[in-house]
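Quarterly update from the structural biology core.
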Amino acid sequence: MVQLRQDNLAGNLYNLVGFQTNLKFQEQNRIFRMIPGLEKTEFERYGQMHRNTFIASPRLLRPTLQHIARDDLLFAGQLTGVEGYMGNIGTGLLAGLI
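Predicted structure, tokenized:
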């Protein structure tokens, strides 16, 4: 199953949702054209692997998500290395309550 998401207000640009890949652009083009309905599609850009940036939480943060050197500096979400929506929501809630 392929999910297409409208990517602009004009409705003439769509995003293939969830296609993070290390495949070369030429190979992506070949494979995507095998999907029924996309045989003659004009691709504006191809997918690439998503890379999250995060800090070294065990070294830099207390269990309260406060920075080890500053009480007023808190971190939450993916930046702390947490994965998934619930983890991000949970750390954000914890940071907000401190």
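Helices lie at 25-32, 57-60, 85-97.
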